[in-house]
Amino acid sequence: MNNVMLALTISLLFGIGTFLILRRDMMKVIIGFGIVSHAINLYIVASGVFSEGTLVPILEHHQAVHGLDQGLIVADDVAAGVIGPITTNPFTEFVDPLVQALVLTAIVIGLATTAFILTLAYRIYEEYGTTDVQELRRLWG
Amino acid sequence: MSFLMQHLPILLIAIPLLMAPITILTKGSPGLQKAIDVVVSVGLLALSGLLLSSVWNGGITVYEVGEFGKYGIVLVADLLSASMVGLNCLIGCMGLIYSYDYIESKSLNLTYHSLYNLMLAGINGIFLTGDIFNLFVFFEIMLLSSGALIVANETSTVTKISDKMEATLKYIVLNMLGSNVMLIAVASLYASIGSLNMADIAVKIQILSEAGTLPWHMYAIGLLFIIVFGGKAAVFPLHYWLPDVHPTAPSPISAMLSGVIIKIGAYGILRVLFVIFAPLKGVFGPVILMMALITIGLGATSAIGQNDVKRLLAYSSVSQIGYVFLGFGMGAIAYAEGLVAGATLIIAASFVYLVNHALAKSMLFLTSGGIIHHAETRDMRKMGGMINSNPLMAGAFLVGAMSIGGVPPMGGFIAKFSLFDAGLRSEFYIPIAIALLFAVFTLFYMFRGWMLIFWGERDPQYGEYSHHKLSFLMVGPILLLAALVLIFGIYAEPVLDIAQTIASQVIDPQPYIDAVLLRVIR
């Protein structure tokens, strides 16, 4: 149920973002970009949750002492569908920490691009006196 | 010296990154700032040459960033990366020297240097990284810094600032869309493969496809990557931003955009579709081929009607990148049909094409800057007779036009000849026929431009040409690049040799994978 809700949320965000990107107002386009990038961030985080029995084993020392590192598979057996380091131990509930690091990077990059494009939009408003994208037609692609 | 050799890949990224704050800190003394930056830029060129020679002699270099073993980010310098880095450092150095007289001094002093260095660092990172998420990060560094450079002020006021704003908005918005698509593709790839290391992904996809359990969405991910890199390289359905952005940028930045940045897309196709998605090459080959053929036709026919000198060159870039992609598409199809030797020849030829186009087009854009300086307009109809007042630019433009048009003895002739020859050997008659037809178009529009600018007389109503002479800082880079275009045409063997090795490594990525995965993990 949670997975379905998550998937629906991500798709809804993608939908809203795409709708806004296709508007004529520059500000709406920029907000649309923000929403799409957050939809992608959610998508990346969601890909870090593995189905039951295939959790990524990032073990700290005390957990190894308590025997939580049992059932650890490090070697890949791709043909059998076993990829990367996973654990079959049912008592571990971890998600992949790498995707969260990826999302942090993506958020920072999104901040930089949004700041740049907002500055640009303000300068365009100063030059053209409008934020309507269809009024920007001095160049013909 | 051994320290230098050991850390060569990271130095090529770290030095320009470090230069970005240093050039801001030295903005109080512009002379010092310029001197430092040009020395470092020449040093980078030397380092990239060193990297190329060490990779050529000693095989693929793998550099581990951080100490995370298999899961860390690696920098991989194989021959493809090393030669692309060399190309970037060469054109970057020439563009920087040229900018000193071309860019307005206030803009140059304040932000231009640091943004330029960030762009160089981003491009070098894209070429050297062996990690697909890291590739995305360097893409963004390159995108933001190049976007900010497009709005840099020139000394001539031919291009209005509002035009630059508009072009930059197009560039940033469309490339942000591309970046978002790339992020989706990377996340999907990670979710289904469980690795971000390109060599690791390549091995796993190989095993999965041999076992017949390759998930269907791998095809979708591959198509997403085609959209991303096609958008960067401006192939047909994604090309429409380029003819606005490249002409409005200052000439040295146009040279970087047309010379190096659109080649990033070609590099990405070689790296991602040919190395990572190696078993699926045959599926994506026809897609790339069709896109390439339409791009060639569209770019060439649009270029014929242009009256703006830089717009002509921009449409020519669209058309020429189509030839590079044509080679990739034909190579992928030939490989899927089992013609390994033929596929190697075709990929080698398209790499030669890529290098020659990069040199000739960046030289032409630098020359167009000189022409604009002289005529104070970008409209070719308002020029004419410039061969008397500016013979140097006439000669340089002629060399570039001959190379792009494929006239011997320029490098472009070798490139076109080897591409068509390799295509015909693998029996791609119809694509080569179409490419040959539009090669004639290329010759026509380049020489139409040359004749409009340099022959005839200038209409008196547009007044006299300006008399200020072009400084050595602007002429030097143009002459050096023109000499390289000529040398690569007359003495083409080294480029052809390197291209042959690159092509065999692209067709059979096993050496790349072995070098990354079988290294001694610290």
- The Cα radius of gyration of chain B reads 22 Å
Strand content of chain B: under 5%
Total domains of chain A: 2
Total number of helices of chain B:
21
Task: Tell me, briefly, the overall form of chain B.
Answer: globular
Short description:
Chain A is mostly helical and 141 residues long. Chain A has helices spanning 2-21, 26-46, 61-65, 97-128; strands spanning 72-73, 86-87.
Can you put this structure into words, describing what you see?
The complex is a heterodimer of chains A (141) and B (522). By secondary structure, chain A is mainly alpha-helical. Chain A has a two-stranded antiparallel sheet with strand order 1-2. The mean pLDDT of chain A is 77. Chain A has two domains: 1-49 and 95-141, Helix Hairpins; 53-93, no CATH class. Chain A starts with a helix and ends in a 13-residue tail after the last helix. Chain A has four helices and two strands. In chain B, a hairpin with a 7-residue loop joins strand 1 and strand 2. Chain B has helices at 2-6, 8-25, 30-58, 79-102, 105-128, 132-150, 161-193, 198-211, 217-233, 242-248, 251-276, 281-304, 309-336, 340-375, 386-389, 391-405, 411-425, 429-454, 472-490, 493-507, 510-517, and strands at residues 61-65, 73-77. The two termini of chain B are 22 Å apart. Chain B is mostly helical and 522 residues long. In chain B, helix 4 packs parallel to helix 14 (340-375), helix 9 packs antiparallel against helix 11 and helix 16 runs parallel beside helix 19. A two-stranded antiparallel sheet of chain B has the order 1-2. Chain B has one domain. The interface between A and B is large, with 37 and 45 residues.
